[in-house]
Amino acid sequence: MLRAVEPGPAVVVCSTCRFSAERREDEQGRRGGALLAAAMRSVQATDSALAGVTVQEMACLFACQRHCAVHLRAPGKIGYVLGGFAPVEEEARAVLEYAVRHARSAEGVVPYGEWPEGVKGHFITRTPPEGFVCE
């Protein structure tokens, strides 16, 4: 069930997430999560500043009430699950911009004033790194 991936800063995208709250797939039968991952890779291809965070995909993050969910993670840092995105490049860019700031932070905490507008209101959970809890 588990598949090894390279360690390091990553955005894990739920590849099976709904296209929208109303629709499971778009007109071509594509899931929103897969489209969001593709949008992230497209943004990274045109902006090298966002290439330091790996985009990984996995089936179902169990955040179905907030379609197009992602898990931000980096070794030794607090992780976050966000959802409710549209599978478009503008929102993919916001997630990646936050992920870059998250990766550069000491413990995974990005000051609110540095959050891209596009991630505000999308946070679902925060998860402590193995061996720690948050104060």
How would you describe what is shown here?
- The chain has 135 residues and is of the alpha+beta class.
- The protein has one domain: Glutaredoxin, CATH 3.40.30.10.
- It is built from 2 helices and 5 strands; from the N terminus they run βαβββαβ.
- It has helices at residues 32-46, 89-104; strands at 10-14, 54-58, 70-73, 79-82, 123-127.
- A 5-stranded mixed β-sheet has the order 2-1-3-4-5, covered by helices on one side.
- It is globular.
Which term fits the overall shape? globular
For the record, the CATH architecture stands as 3-Layer(aba) Sandwich
Main β-sheet, spatial strand arrangement: 2-1-3-4-5
Averaged pLDDT: 96
Helix content: 10-25%
| Unreliable residue runs | none
SS summary, helix count: 2
In what range is the share of β-strand residues? 15-25%
CATH topology: Glutaredoxin
The total number of structural domains is: 1
CATH domain class name: Alpha Beta
Order of helices and strands: EHEEEHE
Q: Rounded to an integer, what's the Rg over CA atoms? A: 14 Å
CATH superfamily: Glutaredoxin
What is the secondary structure topology, with strand pairs?
Layout: E1 10-14, H1 32-46, E2 54-58, E3 70-73, E4 79-82, H2 89-104, E5 123-127
Parallel strand pairs: 1-2
Antiparallel strand pairs: 1-3, 3-4, 4-5
Defining traits:
135 residues, alpha+beta, Glutaredoxin, five-stranded mixed beta sheet, globular
